[in-house]
Amino acid sequence: MLYYQGYTVSFQEVPDEISLVIQVADCPHHCPGCHSPQLQTPIGDPLFKDLPHMLAEYEDAITCVCFMGEGQDDAELHACHGIVKAWGLKTCLYTGGYGMHGCKWDYIKIGPYIEENGPLTSKTTNQRMIRVNWDTLDPKKALTDITDKFWTSVIPE
Amino acid sequence: MTIRLYTIPNCPQCALLKQRLTSLKAEFEVICDPSEIERLGYQTAPVLQFGDKTYNFAESIKLLNSPDALAAIHPPAAEEVHIDPKPSRSDKYEPWRKDLDFMHMYAEAQNAASGSQVDANANVSNKNIATMAPEVHKKDNIYANRLLMYDTITSMYGEELAEEYLRQLEQHEIYRHDESGMPVGTPYCASITLYPFLFDGMTKLGGTTGAPHHLRSFCGGFINLVFAVSAQLCGAVATPEFLAYTDYFIRKEYGDDYYQRPDQVVELSLERRTLDEVITDSFAQVVYSLNQPAAARGSQSVFWNIAYFDKYYFNQLFDGFVFPDGTSMQWESVSWLQKRFMNWFNNERLKNILTFPVESLSLLNDGEKFLDEEWADFAAEMYSRGHSFFVYTSDSVDSLASCCRLRNGIQDNHFSYTLGAGGVATGSKCVMTINLNRLVQDGAKANPGKPWEEWLSPLVDAQVRKVHKYLLAFDHIIHDMNDKHMLPIYEAGFIAPEKQYLTVGINGLVEAAEFFDIPIRDCPKYQQFVDAIMLPIFNANKEAKTTKVMFNTEMVPAENLGVKHAKWDKRDGYVVPRDCYNSYFYLVEDETTNPIDKFRLHGKLYTGHLDGGSALHCNLDEHLSKAQYVHLLNYAIKTGCNYFTFNVPNTVCNDCGHISKHRLNHCPECGSDNLDYATRVIGYLTRISKWSAERKKEAARRYYAGVGTV
């Protein structure tokens, strides 16, 4: 079973998209220094049951649904991913690991949080944000590292 | 009762309080000892102990002017022995002592907005002797205004309604804007046509300069014109044609194709300036001049607004337009010049916090997408580059948003050889605002046990009809002033009184809804409540329209009225959930309301009957990408949110002066954390430290849409 602890619309998690961001609980990675340790336990509301309501609430406004964490039920994660795709929206997974968990994510943030390297917005981060193009078989074209989008701003400080 | 004055040596304020107490013939004890002041928990002298309470200097002055305090000093004695004091030469001047006290207090205050007792002005930056001048007489202005309104309402509708007007004002059921600052009978705001300026220059406004003939004389004359017109208005002056006319004078001087060769050197001076430099220097001349404090307005700068148009708006507004030399407007060069100005202004704001002009871009849509894709795309690009401006979007050229929040219907869109483009002239003659929170709570008291659905709309309707009559009385005063040649802006043809609305303001809407435990989010219950209030106003406005007068409604910016209403209502025992009533359909401090929710709450389901407009200030923590802005602009069409801006606080370093368009914790130049943030209060981009204390609190509470971190 997948649990979540809240959702909102946000601009920052997925570059160039307007995302419904869902905080998925029961994260298996337990990185030291994790900024939301409350998500390490299987506590929250059932995601599979509530997801259609969230989508109905915001589908006219968003371009993407971003799962903050994969939980520990791949079958349900796969089903949730499928529901989002059926609504014609892009998908993104924030994982502390490196696996796709059997889903065709349009974006995936990979890598554990390591305190001394900093989060995605830090230039020394070990984490990567990858955009996936599922229409090509050429691995060079299929995966694009867009992590630098979190570092650069068009407007100078 | 014990009265003790704690002082320190050589302190003029201490001396002043002492003098004041003496003049009140109070019995008091003076304790000149700094450690006593510290013991009482104060850092500055003097401190007044009055009974069992203590007061600082400013509070003491206020206290000693209050009737309650005076009564406490001299309780009415059974038999008062009257001894004539020795007459002093200063006795006849004593009635003005209150002005003197006020001046001392103003000089002590933190900044101009906090010093103002009556009606804090948003666009005064620094306190000085010029900003103090109008403050001293604000109360006198209010009383003169009330008397004239009383007389006029009596002659039009009878004494009963005139009494009711004063009662409603005094009990804060309604609020008359700009009652304090200007002489009686000054209209509120106007979007003017510049056409008469092309023929008469400043002469019909009492100036000496004639019609402009070149870019330079146009810019110089234009600055004078905006100052002169502002002097006859309490509020904003909008000049939607500013860039279109600038374009005309550039073309006259440098040819119709000037925009295709901006790098051409066009000056023989040692600087060898290019055409682009000549143009941007003109921008700088006008913008910097108009951001100057104007001495005649109590060192406020003018409130100046301009407009940008997309191709469709432009063509429809200026269809058939003819300049005095017989030529027409030219969209291609105006479009280029609009973009050039926006880019220039965006960069200039890195050098200085320039408050004006407030810019509104009008974009036409077909219900699904923007018709002028090039300009919609440019708007998204400018937002992503950190420029802050308003977008107004509509599916017909039916109205113009030109007064930073006021949306005004375009009545007559035809070109006339005397007035120019008819569509640009609009505005509001007067705003009177209903305190909705008080209205509904009074209604609930009068209708115990009945659900609001039964009584709310009729109650609103009755209140609006009264406000209409008050506004008509004000309209009568304006016409009277005009007949006596007191308002040359009308006679000179820059605006006609028939083109300006009489505006019903509303404040305290969400607070009223909260009183009934209605959730402030996009839901049928809240929609129903908003409708119950807005629909009767909308219908009454429509019904009251004649060929001479029109009414509209706006959600007024609560820059200081929201604070006053909250204060008054709290004092009088009403339920007041916050210290500053909202100016939006959502709660500023609610972190669960995301930007999408805000667009919905300012969409047509809520603002559909708000015929005078309200602007959504979508506050963001960081700038978005162009792709995201494109999406949000389109989402605005979907929700029917027709007037909005995005607001990311700019950081200003108080030590080195560096300005950044980001919200930062440290200055990237000098590392200082002595920072200030510039943000839009209600249309105007100003430094937060220049706001009055309560408004600063509102800014601190204001929720900026979160940056997610991982």
Write the layout of secondary structure elements.
The complex is a heterodimer of chains A (157) and B (710).
Chain A: E1 3-10, E2 19-24, E3 45-46, H1 47-58, E4 64-68, H2 74-86, E5 90-94, E6 107-110, E7 128-132, H3 139-142, E8 143-145
Parallel strand pairs in A: 2-4, 4-5, 5-6
Antiparallel strand pairs in A: 1-2, 1-3, 6-7, 7-8
Helix pairs in contact in A: 1-2
Chain B: E1 3-7, H1 12-23, E2 29-32, H2 34-39, E3 47-50, E4 53-55, H3 57-65, H4 67-73, H5 97-108, H6 112-115, H7 129-136, H8 138-157, H9 159-170, E5 174-176, E6 189-191, H10 195-200, H11 215-230, E7 237-238, H12 242-254, H13 275-290, E8 304-309, H14 311-317, H15 331-348, E9 358-364, H16 373-384, E10 390-394, E11 399-403, E12 406-409, E13 415-416, E14 420-421, E15 426-435, H17 436-446, H18 452-483, H19 488-491, E16 501-507, H20 509-515, H21 524-544, E17 551-555, H22 561-571, H23 595-601, H24 604-607, E18 616-619, H25 626-639, E19 643-647, E20 650-653, E21 659-660, E22 675-680, E23 685-687, H26 693-701
Parallel strand pairs in B: 1-2, 6-7, 7-8, 8-9, 9-10, 15-16, 16-17, 18-19
Antiparallel strand pairs in B: 1-3, 3-4, 5-15, 6-15, 10-19, 11-12, 13-14, 20-21, 20-22, 22-23
Give the key terms.
heterodimer; A: 157 residues; alpha/beta; eight-stranded mixed sheet; B: 710 residues; eleven-stranded mixed sheet; four-stranded mixed sheet; 23 strands; 14% strand; disordered C terminus
Tell me what you see in this structure.
The complex is a heterodimer of chains A (157) and B (710). Helices cover 18% and strands 24% of the residues of chain A. Chain A is of the alpha/beta class. In chain A, strands 3-1-2-4-5-6-7-8 form an eight-stranded mixed β-sheet. Chain B has 710 residues and is of the alpha/beta class. Helices cover 42% and strands 14% of the residues of chain B. Chain B has 26 helices and 23 strands. In chain B, helix 1 (12-23) packs parallel to helix 3, helix 8 crosses helix 18 (452-483) and helix 17 packs parallel to helix 20. Chain B is globular and about 90 Å long. Chains A and B meet through strand 1 of A and helix 23 and helix 25 of B.
